[in-house]
Each structure stands twice: as structure tokens, then as C-alpha cells.
Amino acid sequence: MYTKQNLIDAVSNEFRILKHLVEKIPADTEGYKPTEGQRTTLELVQYLSYVFSATTKVILANDSSLYMPLHEKSKETTIQNFASILDQEEIEFKKALENVTDEDLSVVINLYNQGEKTKGVYLVESMLKWLGAYKTQLFLYIKASGNTNLGTSNLWGGFDMPQTESK
């Protein structure tokens, strides 16, 4: 059985990887965006600074109006303060789940036009699918912005691959 603690641990690891990736953004590339109509690197980082704790609160309350105040606050996020903001997001995420019971997680809701699912299923699917997708998007932005040294270890493990000596 997948537990609440399993979700917390998985999200915490994904946050660690996001913080690692943000450190790899090349200087002066905050304005990069692949095409018109997509977020810039900075806008993506700002989105990542609130969406996961906001989504958790929305799911638990079954109230999508909780997004907007957090969206406005995200404009304060910079590349430089992202790690500390994500640390706070992790605290908020854990706090939101602190007193949630198995009965709470078994309540069926319908958000995002995704059909009826339990709050627990929404939490796991939203958190882990979205973290994987947005983490990959950020990784691709960073590579396209000029940091070609990134590899799969950065994306999936959150660490730099050790350099090997060539003979």
C-alpha cells in the first residue's frame, strides 16, 4: 500500500532535484522560452515555486479558488531565492498533509475535468506526474539555454555525473 509518508518522501526528493536543476540555469537566461506563448525560464521557476503546495491545498479542500492568492505571491520568486522558497513549499506541503486521515484521502472528488477519483489518487497522480513533467521541462530549458553539460543524472538523480579522465 502506498502511504502518505511515501508521497511525502517522493515529493521531497523531487523538490531536491528541482533545486539542483535551478542551480544549473546559465547566467542571464531567465528570459529564455522555446516559442512565443510558452513560459520563460523565470516564469516556469515562479510557477514551480507555488503549484505543488497550492495543488495539495486545492485537492484537500476540493476548492480550486485557492490557487490565485498563491499565484500572485509567486511573482516574488527569483532564480536566486527559489531554493529557500521551495524549502518553504515543502514545509507547507507536509503541513497540509499532517492531519489528513485515510478517510479524508478516500473522499471522491472531481477536479481539472479528470473525472471522479479519491483525494489520495489526485494527490499522488498530480504531485508525481506533474513534478516529473515540469522537472523535465525545466531540464530541457536549461539545456537549450546553453548548459549542455546536463545529463540524466541531473534530471533523475539531482546530481552531477562525476567527470572521468580520458586516456
How would the global form be characterised?
Answer: globular
- Estimated structural class: mainly alpha
What is the top-level CATH class?
Answer: Mainly Alpha
CATH architecture classification name: Up-down Bundle
Widest β-sheet, arrangement of strands: 1-2
Helical amount: 55-70%
Our estimate of the beta-strand percent is under 5%
Cα separation of the termini = 49 Å
Oligomer: single chain
- Assign the CATH superfamily: dinb family like domain
Summed up, the helix count is: 8
Order of helices and strands: HHHHHHEEHH
**Could you report the average pLDDT, rounded to the nearest whole number?**
92
Compute the CA-based radius of gyration. Answer: 17 Å
Total strands = 2
Largest sheet: 2 strands, antiparallel
Explain what this protein looks like in three dimensions:
The structure is a single chain. By secondary structure, the protein is mainly alpha-helical. It has eight helices and two strands. Strands 1-2 form a two-stranded antiparallel sheet. Helix 1 (about 5-20) packs antiparallel against helix 5 (about 80-95), helix 2 (about 40-50) packs antiparallel against helix 7 (about 120-145) and helix 3 packs antiparallel against helix 7. The model has no long low-confidence stretch (mean pLDDT about 90).
Element layout with pairings:
Elements lengths: L3 H19 L18 H8 L2 H11 L5 H7 L8 H16 L4 H4 L2 E3 L5 E3 H26 L7 H6 L10
Antiparallel strand pairs: 1-2
